[in-house]
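Example 4.3 (complexes with small molecules)
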Amino acid sequence: MSYRIGVLLGDDIGLEVVPVAVEVATAAAEHAGATVDWQELPIGRAAYDTLGSTLPDGTLQTLQTLDGWVLGPIGHQAYPKTPKAINPHPILRKHFDLFANIRPAKSYPSLKSLHKDVDLVIFRENNEGFQPDRNMVAGSGEFRPTEDITLSMRVITRRACLNIARAAFKAALTRKKQVTAVHKDTVFKLGCGMFAEACKEVALEFPDVAFNEVMVDTMALKLVMAPQPFDVLVTTNMFGDILSDLAAGLVGGLGMAPALSAGPNHAMAQATHGSAPDIAGGGIANPYAMIMSVQMLFEWLGQRNQDRGLLAAATLIERAVSEIIAEGNALTPDLGGLSSTQEMGRAVTERVSFLEVAAL
Ligand code: NAD
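Answer. The structure with nicotinamide-adenine-dinucleotide bound is encoded below.
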């Protein structure tokens, strides 16, 4: 089977980490015998400057025809304030119903991190909740009826809660079989209450998976003090956004935080971090998050199509990254190394090609 995967560079460090991730993934696919046809598409500031829109129509239409895509970070805060310079990623998530934002946090023994032996994944509902740029069919979920009053709305639907809960429980079957629902139904009795009800309902469908609930404030405390017992966390949009940055902080920072947004028909590899304008152009951005986001995309496509070649490519990437990190000779400065983005990427690419596929 062959795959068509889009490449959207994004902004700032996206121009540095996305090509590196694609280079690693290309090597892994070739080595594992999987056929991937990469297709670069315009998005972000560069698309605005050349085509007059940060999300040109052609990009959306072409994505529909692809199996998945890689999206670099979007530096939307620096966009001109015009309707043609929108933040494109909420539109992509909504348009393709990418309801599950899957954000792992994993510590590596050789890297400096606040905690060792962390291996958890956050399933964050992606398309509604307390996110005013994506929770309404039209207009914003924030409005100001008078000069001195602002209302910000959270939207919770049973369908979205059930969808994200099912995705989390399914993933737990392949991990430590443990799901923790994170919410605050003690206060948000209706909104978080509906989320909790949905999680409990889905838990009954997965009797082999242990299930518990933790209030979001307590979860922040528990993650900082002792994150090791947690496996799969499932939560609503804003709580997931905040907790996943916190989880990244536990294991070495945002450069160590990959992510996948997945829906019924498409998936998008998009690291948790932003476009990091403070380090853009310096060649020091950590490519791990973007490389492992593409690894997650390969795994998602491989599982969906039961494609051993693509699954092998995903395993190759994971092994090569782990080995390069363990050896510590080609790491970016945020990980305590002296290497550039490209040097770290090249080391992973070379290791991918060196690993024995038959041994996987
Ligand atoms: P950020 O994630 O870009 O950066 C936060 C800090 O982490 C910075 O010090 C940065 O240098 C560091 N960092 C991030 N990625 C790194 C990497 N791969 N390697 C090493 N260090 C890394 O957050 P910000 O500065 O608040 O936002 C910058 C822009 O990105 C804004 O326009 C914001 O709106 C946007 N943003 C986009 C996304 C996304 O596209 N998913 C997410 C968050 C923020």
